[in-house]
């Protein structure tokens, strides 16, 4: 998607916001932690949230990328800080929540648990390291962030509180070669429903899951492009082999997707914004599939 189209989409969203009596933005003055927001879907979430008046906390393991996203938001007139670190380290989670609360004057309103990557293998070749890392990052880490932020959500001040956990169609339907990722992403759905049931009645906290299908990110790009993450000194290649992505002769590309194309990071982030916004104020405990119609 070109930058011109992205700008037009942002302009239309801003216009809609003003028309709906949110002249300062749908998320005006709300403090939002967005993990994995140094690039991809997370970075787009940060940008869109800031455009709607949120105070964005950009969380990423890559400090340079996190600061770049936060700096662009600030240069555009928005409010953002970068808090870089490794989510698999408990001390960083404590630091992240503390700095977010400080940035927000003692308040946190939104958590988007988006950070993650895939480390695939078929079941009988899956190592303990692959299993433990992916289950921890996609399951345990969101739990620990939410638990650490509990004092800022279990409050009755009349302000909205919102938790959005990112899942995947792998968690909803399973996926060959992703047993670790599928289990973690399925667990996220159950965790989200539990939060909605525990914190909704007394505190009005909304909690929802968004399950993405094929979105254009480094996780679905051609593996040959060379993207990787490093886990304890081991490089983990990201992406899908180009041959695996190609449609066989005579088969329509993306035939299993009714819209016949992958989604963009902007489209994915727009769904997150929609659920975080007051336009979805009566939606809680749900799993929203953003798939272009795939798996319906």
Describe this structure in words.
With 296 residues, the chain is of the alpha/beta class. The chain has one domain: Rossmann fold (3-Layer(aba) Sandwich). It is built from ten helices and nine strands. It has helices at residues 3-19, 40-51, 63-75, 90-103, 128-148, 150-153, 169-173, 179-203, 242-245, 265-276, and strands at residues 31-35, 55-60, 79-84, 110-113, 162-168, 206-212, 228-231, 234-237, 287-290. The radius of gyration is 19 Å and the shape is globular. The model has no long low-confidence stretch (mean pLDDT 92).
Mean pLDDT: 92
What is the CA-atom radius of gyration, in angstroms? 19 Å
Count of the separate structural domains: 1
The outline comes out as: globular
> Total number of helical segments?
10
Question: Structural class of the helices, strands and pairings?
Answer: alpha/beta
- Please give the number of β-strands: 9
Identify the CATH homologous superfamily: NAD(P)-binding Rossmann-like Domain
CATH architecture field? 3-Layer(aba) Sandwich
- Approximately how much helix is present in the residues? 40-55%
What low-confidence regions span 5 or more consecutive residues with pLDDT below 50? none
- Which strands sit side by side, in order, in the main sheet? 3-2-1-4-5-6-9
Largest sheet: 7 strands, parallel
Percentage of residues in strands: 15-25%
What is the CATH topology classification name?
Answer: Rossmann fold
Can you identify the CATH class? Alpha Beta
The run of helices and strands is HEHEHEHEHHEHHEEEHHE
N- and C-termini, Cα separation: 25 Å
